[in-house]
Amino acid sequence: MLISMNWIGDFVDLDGLDKLDLIHRFSLSTAEVENEIFNKGSDIEGIVIAEILSVEPHPESKKLHLLKVNAGGSEPVDVVCGAPNVRVGMKTAFAPLGARIGEITIAPRKLAGIPSNGMCCSEAELGLSDNNSGIMEITDDIPNGTLLKDAYQVDDIVFEVDNKSLTNRPDLWGHYGIAREFSVLAGRPLKPIEKVDLSQYDGLPGVDMKIEDPLCYRYACIKVDNITRNVSPVNMRLRLYYCGMRAINFLADITNYIMMEMGQPMHAFDSRKVEHIRIKRFPEPFEFQTLDKEMRHIDTDTLMICNGDTPVAIAGIMGGLDSEIVEDTSALTLESACFDPVSIRKSTVRLSHRTDASMRYEKSLDPEMVADAIGRFLKLLTQYDDGVKVISALTDEYAYRYPAVAFDFDRRFVDRYTGIDIDDATILKTLTSLGFDVTQSGDVFSVKVPSWRATKDVTIKADIIEEITRIYGYDNFDVHTTKAPLYPVEISVEKNVEDHIKDMLVKRYSLHEVHSYVWPYYDEFKELGIEVEDNIGLLDSPVVIRRSIAPTQLCQVKINTMYAPDFGIFEIGRIADGVNAETNLVNEHKKLNITLFSKTCTLEQLYLRMRDMVAVLADDIKHQPVTFEKQEASHQWQHPKNLNSVICAGKKIGEIGLPHPIIAANIDKKAAIVYCEIDIDDFAAVPSAGIVYDEPSKYPEIEVDLTFRTPVFAPIAIAIRRTNSPLVRRVRLADIFDDETGRALTVRITFSDKDKTLTREEVNVVVDKIIGTLKEQGIALKE
Amino acid sequence: MFFMVNVDELRKKFTESLQNAADSRDIEALRVEYLGKKGSVTELLKGMKDLAGEEKKEFGQQVNILKNEIAEAVSRKVTEMQQAAVKREIESMPEFDLTAPPTLDRGSYHPITLVQRECEEVFRSMGFTVEDYAEIVTDYECFESLNIPKHHPARDMQDTYYLTNGQLLKSQTSAAQNAIYKKYRKALVEEGKPIKAVFPGRCFRNETTDACHENTFFQMEGVMVDKDISISNLIFFMKTMLSEVFKKDIRVRLRPGFFPFVEPGFELDISCLICGGEGCPSCKHSGWLELCPCGMIHPEVLKAGGIDPEEYTGFAFGLGMTRLAMMKYGIADIRDLNSGDLRRLSQFTQDC
Questions:
Q1: Helix axes A250-262, A175-186, angle to 10 degrees
Q2: Which residues contact A646 (CB under 8 A, 6 or more apart)?
Q3: Which residues, other chains included, contact A499 with Cβ-Cβ below 8 Å and sequence gap of 6+?
Q4: Contact B130/A491, CB-based, under 8 Å?
Q5: What is the per-residue pLDDT across A626-679, written as a single tens digit (0 to 9) for each?
Q6: Distance from CA of B236 to the nearest CA of A (A)
Q7: Contact call for A481 and B240, based on CB within 8 A
Q8: Is B104 on the interface with A (CB under 8 A)?
Q9: Per-residue pLDDT tens over the stretch A246-277
């Protein structure tokens, strides 16, 4: 919202004060002011009011005219002018030689061969409006040669308040409310708004009006006749223009002017169209044409202003085309009203039509303004058009009053909230000047909140703290730390686990952490041949939440296939696994998903690399071994083979697998791709086995290599375990042989004894047992 | 003195042979030839048995001298050769080429992780716990418990991702506030332990994405509740924390801001990180950057968390992790963060 300092000056005397500094303080104490501040009128200098004395055609041009103008000097000035609206006797804005418009200083020049000693200006050229259809027409009786800036409020400082910072301040949606803030910041009194006394019309007949719906809080109207003025006074038009509104006609301009001044939207109907005003909703939806000529769908929740049963306006949003003021309108009915703010906002959302009026109504306007706005309207109307006649009494139905807000607070409350010492006098002065009714008794302050702050903004004691402190100024606060006692900071296991996993994967395995979205990548899935799985989804949308990160990560692998021949990515993110039928809450899980990509190693090598990575994570973080169990594929994107559950401390914590061959080929025909998913909470819940220190034996170890004809290591491991020998220290797969007879595995077993030097014989007993067990299963030693 | 002649001849012969020895094997052969069990010197000694008296003694001495001379010469020659070999090895060692670019086979953290960790560190050092929270929350958690009434625009469908079961993707980290108050209220009330917690997390807003807007982004919320927590404390903590986060002395200023869950609520600005407050294009010449909303926790919010607002007060703030990461690393397009594009993301490594 744009604010004119001239307008503010109507209500607070700002003479002698640094206005830019005040605006800055307003920004820090009240609402955010945009950075750019406009110095209106600074682009023009030396423009005077002049009268056209004669108009002659230009011999060389059909468009140009030769004028003699009286610019206040003793001699008329010869000017060549191209405007279509020139006529003898007309007063206009004239830039004499030496005057400045923007960067240009007016100098003598020839137009189509004839010298011109100055320039008649349009309002647009002077920055006074966007009207460029002809030169400015001045109807006021002002002596020729008067500086335009002396005649009108051309010079102004205009700033913009961020509307978002006003959402909770219905009182700041007009200049008067803003002026109140300036009066407090400047420490100067706020002048009342001049209005006419409406009680003088009490003897006139009322308007037939009735509120038939609780969504209308207050409705006031009055009938006016004999409005003859069409164009608004220059100063009014200037203010509207500076504040971002186009001047339309006198009546529409005053309506806008009141809205911009008091924040109260108003509407004028052709009286013939609103003889029986009813405010209500309709039981059936219908189409309605608003004055912008749009057809709009009105549903049963939208409040309407009606003439009997005929809708004439959408309450608080926009008037109807049929009841608009037209050429032959003689009497008009002025509306000033207050509606339920939530209803207005929801209606604008449904209609997708937000107006200056609805924007204000949805902030919870003060219904107390309703009648005052009519008083103000009539004041301006009669001030500028003395033939105007009021032909009805004020008809005012006040159906719903916001409850009065009043409460007590004490010094201690202020002290503990602020943490600084603000004295009683400051508290009293601040609140009083903001319009609060405050009395003090000992340490207790009793406040009554003014109506314009009581619709939603100020309701509790804490709100008063804001009023006191924002005016006191946060820059003036003495800041200090707390005196709270110290306790050790708890660090959650999950958080620790997550951090360690990230460090391990990044630092040891050189993986890259990525982030992704929680919904499927629909287009990319299609490209790779991944089907979207059914799951809990967004309301009124086909979009579902992902069941797994893996498919998403496959899409991310796809975009990186050119990044490097080998890489791995991971994410710790969340997935949804349907809805819990009992609680109706989504089963949300936090997962670690890793995907490895390689063009340099085989699928098996890559798979084992993943296996080792998982084992290292479990060993490093939980000091626990992991085992793997074959698992059936349950997702379309999984490879049916080589899907293994990761088991740690007897519980499944995740799985390692491959993407389906078709999907893998769609990513990269020549690359190996392996994924792994670990449930973070399940992994975090695994008890740590702790570090168990094992003193190495002082005696030498004996290593034995045995090569068995078997493609699988498990029987070897079992056979070794079955010996139950305390001498076996370590077991590892030392080598793999593939030949025409199949695969053979070399196991290297390390034996040691803590108490003595081992003998070959002791070792051989164990080795023979192992060989024997395997032989029984048909697994022979390789020759 | 035939024997003496033999000694001299042998010495002469040895000296010649030693000079001709090419490597350690030759020397070893020489040593064996002269000093071995059947070596020439040993043979000489054997001849001693034919001598007697002074002659025997004299001869014995001479042979022993020769024996020692040979042993010494052999040892000296071995050392020389070893030294020569080391010297040759050093000389023949090629110099490695370090001019080619090194292979940086290293991983990377997501920039959000880096910024988040940095902030967590700062808050931990000031006694704050770091909390984790769900992404799918209830209307109560995200709105109702935060004093956001049913008809508030923040709850509008067009801004929030509602799910078909009535839950929603949390639109703000504040959604964790209520649970955190309930988790720690007992310790606060019974043991006098202040509640000090930060909770980073992913948030969602139904927005059309472009270079500046994302529907998925990260925030970090923080709260502190105790007896007599004041606006003065809030300013102190914010200034101190932000100075730590940005690793320079930051000036902060508060402006009134409206958020339903705080009262009073503030917009917190920091002195521009680029120009320090002088005014530059980054801060639109104002010298200030709008950084985070904060405020004193609304009494209704404390009440909803089971905390008596007459007895306790607190402050809350919300830091935009995504925005911080973008500011810190000069990331121009917010969408890069969720792109998974390693050409971009692999650049973010440990940053101390």
A1: 40
A2: A614, A626, A628, A652, A653, A654, A655, A656, A676, A678
A3: B117
A4: yes
A5: 999 999 999 999 999 999 999 999 999 999 999 999 999 999 999 999 999 999
A6: 5
A7: yes
A8: no
A9: 999 999 999 999 999 999 999 999 999 999 99
Cβ-contact A753, A725 below 8 angstroms:
no
pTM: 0.87
Cis peptide before A625 (omega within 30 of 0): no
How far apart are the C-alpha atoms of A474 and A469, rounded to whole Å? 7
Q: Cβ of B63: how many Cβ atoms within 10 Å?
A: 21
CA-based nearest distance B265→chain A, Å: 8
Write down the residue that tokens 């418009």 correspond to.
A101
Tokens read off for B161: 């991702």
User: Both tokens of residue A758?
Assistant: 């081992």
Question: Do you know the residue count of chain A?
Answer: 783
> Does residue B276 have a pLDDT over 90?
no
State how far the Cα of A559 lies from the Cα of B15, in Å rounded to an integer: 77
What pLDDT sits at residue A505?
97
Range list of H helices, A187-293: 234-242, 250-262
Q: How many CB atoms lie within 10 A of CB A714?
A: 9
Helix (H) or strand (E) holding B40: helix B40-46
3-state DSSP call for residue A461? Answer: helix
- Pairing of β A651-657 and β A644-648: antiparallel
Tokens of A97: 């030689």
Q: Which residues of B touch A568 (CB under 8 A)?
A: 107
Question: Which of A34, A512, A572, A596 has the most B C-beta neighbours within 10 Å, making it the best mutation to test the interface with B?
Answer: A512
* pLDDT tens digit sequence for B160-171: 999 999 999 999
Q: Where are the alpha helices (DSSP H) in A420-520?
A: 424-433, 461-472, 493-503
What ipTM is given for this predicted complex?
A: 0.88
Question: With contacts defined as CB-CB under 8 Å, which chain B residues touch A478?
Answer: 232
